[in-house]
Amino acid sequence: MLGPQVWSSVRQGLSRSLSRNVRGWASGEGKKVDIAGIYPPVTTPFTATAEVDYGKLEENLHKLGTFPFRGFVVQGSNGEFPFLTSSERLEVVSRVRQAMPKNRLLLAGSGCESTQATVEMTVSMAQVGADAAMVVTPCYYRGHMSSAALIHHYTKVADLSPIPVVLYSVPANTGLDLPVDAVVTLSQHPNIVGMKDSGGDVTRIGLIVHKTRKQDFQVLAGSAGFLMASYALGAVGGVCALANVLGAQVCQLERLCLTGQWEDAQKLQHRLIEPNAAVTRRFGIPGLKKIMDWFGYYGGPCRAPLQELSPAEEEALRMDFTSNGWL
């Protein structure tokens, strides 16, 4: 059961969540908060002894803060959140809140396997500075995660969250796509403001935008590889791993799409496809951290059991960036 202190925080937070302005988020009568824009999903730096390196985290944030991002995502897949303790997850959110520019939004991944644990983590992350909770689908019992089960889960979390909730579907890691019918139902909840979809199926993204058009519900693309296509279909931004190293270019692609410069957007999108694939599905977090080292950020090692790239993989990673003119 939730402890008395947690329940007290939940009740207090819920009473404020839909009536306050959260660190500059525009929210009027009957209007959900606006999450439109580009967000880099921040990596978690580790020392050689696998401890969280908070100093390097802050250094990376100061560099990333020079780009016109809408905000930052912490404890997403690129943050290696399954490998962190609960106290580390909260400390990372707290440190990011303190280090990031005050006018940016902080979306914190609070998803856990159980509804109870997710509520508790969401409340705790709100207390240490998160502006919104990005909640990944529970997946260990994926065979039982029906639309009804997921609707129940997200509804309970949103009911009890003191901050807005963003749905998060990442089937490459969970083996589970959040069903469109569940998204449509959940979009009607007053404390669910949008969704990050990392599946890469742009027809699905377009369908979700279409079916939630009567709700104040926003969709974020989960990768730079299909960012232009997502904008064309009505998405409002993206959470893009590639923005950790090509932040200016991803923000430029956003501007080109928003201003209708589709020919230039297409040219830039083409040059981002291979680098994006390299730091996502091809080489994953080890690849992203390696390229961060090359671009003047601190990538460093991953936490076990993730392994560093082999020399051959490093060379292939380098080629994906050099062949497109980025190195």
Automatic annotation (TrEMBL):
InterPro entries associated with the record: Aldolase_TIM, DapA-like, Schiff_base-form_aldolases_AS
Classification via SUPFAM superfamilies: Aldolase
Keyword Mitochondrion: yes
Catalysed reactions listed for this entry: (4R)-4-hydroxy-2-oxoglutarate = glyoxylate + pyruvate; (4S)-4-hydroxy-2-oxoglutarate = glyoxylate + pyruvate
Cellular component GO terms, alphabetical: mitochondrion
Membrane-spanning residues: none
GO BP terms: glyoxylate catabolic process
Domain of life: Eukaryota
Cellular compartment(s): Mitochondrion
Protein role: Catalyzes the final step in the metabolic pathway of hydroxyproline.
Record's subunit section: Homotetramer.
Family (UniProt): Belongs to the DapA family.
Protein name, as recorded: 4-hydroxy-2-oxoglutarate aldolase, mitochondrial
Species this protein is from: Colobus angolensis palliatus
